[in-house]
Amino acid sequence: MCIDALYLAKIKVVMEYKISIIVPVYNVENYIERCVRSLFEQTMKEDVEYIFVNDCTPDRSIQIVEEVASEYPDRLEHIRYVHHILNSGASAARNSGLAIAKGEYIIYADGDDWAEKEMLADMYMAAKENDADIVRSDFFCTYSTHEEIVKQVDEVDPMECIKLLLSEKLHGALWIKLIKRTLYTDHMIVFFDGYWEDLRASVQFFYYAKKIVYIPKAYYHYVQYNTNAQGAQNLGKKLDEIIKNTDGIIEFLQEKNLPLDKHIHYLKLAAKQTLLFTCVKSSFREWLQIYPESNNYIWSYPSLPLHLRIVGGCTALKLWPLIDLWIWIKKRHKGK
């Protein structure tokens, strides 16, 4: 992490803005202009702070931000830059931005995504009208050829939201959540390194939130085709990071003595499910060894497609001839 919880707790920042939007910037020169323009052209014209964290990007991403910013003179005095000496990852970039943010509410954006112009205004209005700690919305999954709206569950009870997060029925990303800054500072919440850092933080936010509001509308465009993004990495490294943050989530839930045993098993299955997507037999053996106490829950795991529940069940029972057959079918299908 770039900062730790103790440091965050000591930060005393006067809230001068309604919203701080924090954007980590790394290797997104082909996308960042669209992102930045969508943020500067928000219908919420005042009381928005923009924090761009240059995570030692090797390309022209940060220069493009500065060039585009010069076209929006009304925004210039509300833009702040943080420059990392070394590439530290998205979590550290978010922590760096959070450490200097002066907004009443915090939201994030990734440099390869973009937002509808009404996003900040609508979410802030919902927050103030309901005295909400968290406002969340739907989002777009944006592919190279089309977009899909991803509807979120209309649920506002904090404990039910946690259950939905653990069973993959609610998205953990923070770019669809406007969060009151005091949730961070009062409870010393920061981002840990690695994949699933959003989910780990979201569980804590929902636990501490007193009021959650849901807007049944999509604002944020989540790009699926940028292979240079910080989240794009090899399966082994990604899995290690997911397991680390999964363990952190479980530790937090157990410390709070929450009766969520079944949902924790679902979380463990979600953490290792990518191993079932491969055509490599060793991945199935690895799946068997990670969180083995959860393997029997594969049959009732609600978010996994039926065919993968069957594959996982066969793996749990060590029915290796059936797994060999499955791998053969997948390879044959890919070869067509």
Tell me what the structure shows.
This protein has 336 residues and is α/β, with parallel strands linked by helices. Helices cover 44% and strands 17% of the residues. The chain has helices at 5-10, 32-40, 61-69, 73-76, 90-100, 119-130, 158-166, 181-187, 197-208, 235-255, 261-272, 281-289, 306-316, 320-335, and strands at residues 17-25, 48-54, 79-83, 103-108, 114-115, 134-142, 147-150, 177-180, 212-223. Strands 1, 2, 3, 4, 5, 6, 7, 8 and 9 form a nine-stranded mixed β-sheet that branches. Helix 2 (32-40) links the parallel strand 1 and strand 2 (48-54). Residues 5-12 have low confidence and may be disordered.
Task: Identify the notable features of this structure and list them briefly.
single chain, 336 residues, Spore Coat Polysaccharide Biosynthesis Protein SpsA, Chain A, nine-stranded mixed beta sheet, 14 helices, 44% helix
Summarize this, please?
With 336 residues, the chain is an alpha/beta fold. The chain is 44% helix and 17% strand. The N and C termini lie far apart (45 Å).
- How many structural domains can be distinguished in the coordinates? 2
Instruction: Find the CATH topology of the largest domain.
Output: Spore Coat Polysaccharide Biosynthesis Protein SpsA, Chain A
Q: Which architecture of the largest domain per CATH? A: Alpha-Beta Complex
Q: Specify the oligomeric state.
A: single chain
CATH class of the largest domain: Alpha Beta
Element-by-element helix/strand order: HEHEHHEHEEHEEHEHHEHHHHH
By DSSP (H or I, 4+ residues per run), the number of helices equals 14
Query: pLDDT below 50 for ≥5 consecutive residues: which ranges?
Result: 5-12
CATH superfamily grouping of the largest domain: Spore Coat Polysaccharide Biosynthesis Protein SpsA, Chain A
What would you report as the Rg, rounded to the nearest angstrom? Answer: 21 Å
Question: What general outline do the C-alpha atoms trace?
Answer: globular
Helix content: 40-55%
* Largest sheet data: 9 strands, mixed
Beta-strand portion reads 15-25%
Structural class of the secondary structure composition? alpha/beta
Number of strands: 9
Average pLDDT confidence is: 91
